[in-house]
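For reproducibility, we list the full input for the nickel (II) ion complex.
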Amino acid sequence: MPIRPVLTIGNPLLRRVARDLEPAEIRSRALRALLDDMVETMHHEEGIGIAAPQVGESVQAAIIEIDVESSRYPGQEPFGLRVFLNPRVTVLDPTEQGFWEGCLSVPNLRGFVERPRRVRVDYLDVDAHERTIEAEGFLATVFQHELDHLQGVLYVDRIRDMTRLATIEDYLRYWRETPGEEHLPD
Ligand code: NI
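The corresponding predicted structure, in tokenized form, follows.
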């Protein structure tokens, strides 16, 4: 179960639409091994989510885990580790909310992104059972960010005001205290 290198922006694989997993694949050893690698890599990189394309596999699989204990996310609700296979996102409330986002595949940068505030995700779990989950606020943004990776989309594509793309250093210097904006580390 090795930690894998994380692909970074510029790698064409990150820009592909990942393919759906077949039911038979979902229970396969190969997929279990991939998911284990994704979890290890996400923990190693201290991310709160990771998508298969980020470790070089263009398939519809993503993992999200918000561990508030160990984290840089004080004040957020914890979210236990969950695997999303073949997910589909539906917007439930298009009212937008903005967060400063980061991404393991876009090192050393932060950008301000506005997204719908409430979504539903229909997906398969590791046993290929159909599941549905709704999320709002911070978690809704995390879901959309992660699942965008499966469509070949990076958060930087969704920044409308490019003056709000910053190095982490300049983000901390100039933007962290911006009133009325919420801030989401990687
Ligand atoms: Ni990301």
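The beta strands are 49-51, 61-66, 79-103, 106-124, 130-136, 165-167, 182-183. The chain has one domain: 12-184. Both points were considered when choosing residues for closer inspection.
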